[in-house]
Design a protein that fits this description.
alpha+beta, single chain, D-amino Acid Aminotransferase, Chain A, domain 1, 3 domains, Rossmann fold, about 375 residues, 5-stranded parallel sheet
Length: about 375
């Protein structure tokens, strides 16, 4: 079947599943080409990478090979620090997502945090240079994603030029998934974001749940701020914003100018799919207020808990997704799969997630013994 869209991302499974739900035959290029994505896509191909960066030449070549007749391009994570690759892929194709120029502006700390100041939106103290006393500060990579680029700032460390620094603020880490049409935004849902230490990465993305404790007035303020930010940046389609929630305030951490990992947690609550709503929003049409499901959903990434190992004989439970196409010898610190849970309340679902992640990690260690 001829693909209707080409999806390119670090991982394209969530977008591919959403497209599959509404009957779109898609082609996918990503870093994993896992079993799930192959099931949802008409064609799926793995792209080589270095330090989580898509190989630019290989990506352009593969895109031209699997879609010789250009079809609309839908992009996910992987382009925040590679805008030139996004620009190259968009030539001759209809881009359903933010342009390279918009992505660059959204991720440039000079531009983005100055915009927040003009709009009167709070954010942690941010600096382009290492503070004299970096205690309580974090070092972040411009265009980084997934938390793997975030580390405590240290005196004497040799930081690359694409580093900026942000004061570490206590509170609950959260995000909002939203649709934008270039002028306005519509909230899809709020999430609590989980992180954990993986190898030498203390803030790796560990998963999320599609609920977070927010007072109604704070929800309204965040929705209004997202609307202002989306209009100022000209964002289109699905996007995310990460923030820290305090007792009665919140502070913006960053904008993710593309569909985020939390798409999975909200896709089943809409008629059709979020893929369809993303396409419509890119064309300038936002839906009316979205129905918020009563079902609590969460997912968590299972990272390799030990060194290289054999997992070919492991039978993954049916509450796992992102199943590896080649499960042998996944090195420490790399994702193995995702565990999922649904239920009636956050505490129940969070408990299920912890138990399932621990069970998978134990199974993986047993197989390696």
């Amino acid at each position: 079947m001829t693909p209707s869209h080409l999806i390119i991302a670090t991982t394209g499974r969530a977008l591919a599943r959403s497209a599959w739900r509404s009957g779109h035959p898609v082609a996918v290029l990503d870093l994993f080409a896992d079993q799930d994505t192959r099931g949802y896509a008409t064609v799926c191909q793995r792209i080589p990478a270095s330090d989580w960066n898509l190989d630019a030449a290989a990506t352009v070549r593969a895109a031209n090979e699997i879609c010789p007749v250009p079809v609309p391009l839908v992009t996910g994570s992987g382009f925040e620090n590679q805008p030139a690759l996004l620009d190259a892929l968009a030539r001759g194709r209809k881009l359903l997502g933010n342009s390279a120029e918009t992505v660059t502006a959204s991720k440039d700390p000079r531009h983005f945090f100055a915009l927040l100041d003009r709009l009167g939106i709070a954010h942690p103290d941010t600096s382009l240079t290492l503070p004299d006393d970096p205690t309580g500060w974090l070092a972040k990579q411009i265009g980084g994603s997934g938390g793997t680029h975030v580390r405590p700032a240290l005196i004497g460390e040799a930081y690359p030029p694409d580093t900026y620094f942000q004061r570490h603020v206590g509170g609950v880490c959260a995000s909002v998934l939203f649709l934008a049409d270039g002028r306005h935004a519509r909230v899809v849902g709020f999430n609590e974001i989980w992180s954990r230490s993986v190898g030498n990465t203390p803030f790796a993305y560990a998963g999320a749940v599609n609920r977070v404790a927010l007072a109604p007035i704070l929800r309204s303020r965040i929705a209004a701020d997202v609307n202002a930010i989306a209009g100022a940046l000209g964002l289109v389609g699905l996007n995310g914003m990460d923030f820290i929630v305090g007792r009665d305030e919140y502070r913006v951490l960053e904008i993710n100018p593309r569909p985020t990992a939390t798409l999975d947690l909200h896709d089943d609550q809409v008629a059709g799919s979020l893929f369809d709503l993303h396409v419509s929003a890119c064309a300038g049409t936002l839906p009316p207020a979205l129905h918020i499901s009563n079902t609590v959903r969460a997912h968590a990434v299972v990272y390799s808990p030990i060194g290289a190992r054999q997992t070919r004989s492991l039978v993954f439970p049916d509450w796992c997704s992102d199943l590896p196409a080649d499960p042998t010898g996944i090195p420490i610190g790399m994702p193995v799969c995702t565990v999922n849970a649904t239920g009636g309340n956050v505490s129940e679902v969070a408990r299920m997630i912890r138990q399932r992640r621990a069970l998978l990690e134990n199974l993986l260690m047993e197989k390696a013994a």
